[in-house]
Amino acid sequence: LIRLREVQPGESIPEMVWDQCVTKSAKGISISSIEICLQDNESKLVFLLDGYDELVPGAGASKQAVPELLVKKWYPNCTVIVTSRPHSGTEQYMTADCKVKVDGFSPTNVDRFVTRYFETVRKSSLADSLVKALQANIVARSMIQTPMFLMLICVLWEEDPTRVFPGTMSGLYHELLLCVIRKYCVREGLAMPNDEVPSVVSGALLHLGRLALESLLRGESLVDPGKTIAMKDTDILLKLGIVSKEVSASRLHPREQLNFPHKTMQEFLAARYVADSVNTSSGDLRNLVPLNTLDAVLQQSNLVQFICGCEGKVAREILAKLNTLQIPECMADSKNKNQSLKNLCMMSLYEGQDSRLFPILSKLLSSLDLKINVPSKESAALKYYL
Fold first, then answer.
1. In what order do the strands lie in the sheet with 2-3?
2. pLDDT tens digits, 110-132
């Protein structure tokens, strides 16, 4: 088992195995002895490469060990299993014999989870009403495949079963965040009049948002608090439950890191930090989010949508940036990329829920050629735009 987020540029396969798979108590096992063992048992080897999307860019270059393992330059007779989020680029190095997609909770799983949750808190009557509310909300339905978010939505419903879930990702994540903050404040005896977040909590969240943004732009999913987050702030974040502490599996690079329950939570908190910096502190969006190419923007599409959902000056600036990124039709794959850009623009307008933003993209969205499933978030965005 190789956790790819621990792999550094220049490391060989035997070095990775020694670093992550050999315990400190094991004596007399060297990197050279591991190399011999791997060569002698090549046909029996199974490499489980966990988290290809978390591989740091330098370690993912074509002449690095992991890509060379995928193209069978190393141990060609072994078996390789790769786990990754979609669109991580593994296809450029390997042709998979079998692909398995993790879809998360099925509708049946959701019904069972909701029923058991409200049975546990002795409010069984709320289960059916929540299931009906989820069926009517496209955005919420897209999130409940992830158990962590389904639990948070159950908490929201338990808190107020008359609520109407927001129709946007940004709105729903904002409510989820407020919910966990309220729970924290009740436990810690902190006042929260009119849902105003205590300064000690908002400061910790903005600091985490900055680290979340920095790690996103590096292509990483964990943040290293190091000396940049005070112990008190780390304690607050852990008690809120929006991150968990994880000790690295590496012997060569041991460290404690903060892990998000889902990448979208990292993107949402990063967007909150960007919005706060631009809307209230006169921060420069170009320096904060240097997405200067269409490929870079499409890679961070959720971050862009969350930024638009934060409203204000930052939404206008990010949409103006998108308006400049359409590529000439003569370039390779220009049609598909330009259509992806238009789809992102439409989704971003939907997240912003502000008709004053429409003129910024009126020329770019003057013609649309999109394939959209119904019902879906994309179809809701198209309906809103039309």
1. 2-3, 46-50, 79-83
2. 999 999 999 999 999 999 999 99
